[in-house]
Write a structure and sequence with these properties.
Strand order of the largest sheet: 1-7-2-5-8
Low-confidence stretches: 159-165, 273-281
Number of helices: 13
Radius of gyration: 19 Å
Mean pLDDT: 86
Largest sheet: 5 strands, antiparallel
Strand content: 15-25%
Structural class: alpha+beta
Helix content: 40-55%
Shape: globular
């Protein structure tokens, strides 16, 4: 059994990890004494859960309970990446008691053999990713994890949230287009062109629905692509930066550190291949 105390420091209330999965056969299914929220950020993965095998893709969000037993393995060639946060039973118990009217039988408190699993798309997925990434550099406090979980289970996911129904179709199309390298290499200009609206209008609507400016949104996608290349290839850092649309290597380094909390070279060392001799951290 995996135990939460193995992951948390003395003053920590949660543990967060952003991980690229291996396509090697996984260890046997494991269980744990904590709650776990898992989001597939990229690619596809095999998920063995309570004796059942399923394939999860980008946008799948799983609310794992301490009673669940599971294992993960990337689908070959998809560079599966997950965002994962783990927290104590006591935190879940407090939320269930205080917000029973809203959460009873839902999310982490769903009854039955299989945990609650949702498939997020468009701005709803973007908000979930943004909320999770904000945990990466935040204090591991009880207030922070409770705020995050309440945000996810209300603002991000609640199907009755009226604002989600008013997301413009053009913004959804621009988000999908910007996932393509030929678009995100152009930076915010590529996003604005795909949106086909005025600069001011696009900025307002992007901040309203995604919580980011067009530049911030596109840069996050570009840096995610760079991280995938760093972990999965031996291409030189300068070439990767250029492939993501960055001409200024210092700017690329700064954005990468802001998003991943480390340098590109250190990220490659931990998550993929050894850094090339010509690279500097």
């Amino acid at each position: 059994m995996f135990r939460i105390d193995a992951y948390l420091g003395a003053s920590d209330a949660f543990h967060f990890v952003r991980k690229t999965l291996s396509d090697a056969p996984p260890v046997l299914e494991h269980n744990h004494d904590f709650f776990e929220l898992l989001l597939v950020e990229h690619g596809h993965l095999h998920h063995w859960i309570n004796g059942v095998e399923e394939v999860l893709g980008r946008g799948h969000l799983v609310f794992l309970r301490p009673t669940d037993s599971h294992a993960l393995q990337a689908v070959v060639g998809t560079n599966a990446q997950i965002l994962n946060v783990m927290f104590r039973r006591e935190t879940a118990a407090h939320l269930e008691t205080r917000y029973a009217e809203d959460f009873s039988g839902r999310f982490f408190w769903k009854s039955g053999q299989m945990p609650a699993t949702l498939r997020l798309q468009g701005p709803r997925l973007e908000r979930a990713v943004n909320a999770l990434l904000n945990l990466q550099t935040s204090r591991r406090s009880l207030a922070r994890i409770e705020h995050f979980l309440l945000s996810v289970m209300t603002h991000v996911l609640d199907a009755s949230h009226a604002a989600d129904e008013r997301i413009p179709a053009w913004l959804l199309a621009a988000c999908r287009a910007t996932a393509e390298p030929r678009v995100f290499r152009q930076g915010a200009a590529g996003f604005l062109k795909a949106a086909g609206r005025s600069h001011e209008h696009v900025c307002r609507q992007t901040r309203r629905h995604l919580g980011l400016s067009p530049t911030q949104y596109v840069n996050r996608i570009r840096i995610q692509h760079a991280a995938m290349l760093l972990a999965g290839t031996d291409r030189p850092l300068l070439e990767i930066a250029a492939d993501c649309g960055f001409e200024n290597l210092s700017y690329f380094h700064r954005l990468f550190r802001q998003q991943y909390g480390t340098t590109p070279g250190s990220y490659r060392h931990r998550h993929g291949r050894e850094p090339l001799a010509s690279e500097t951290a």
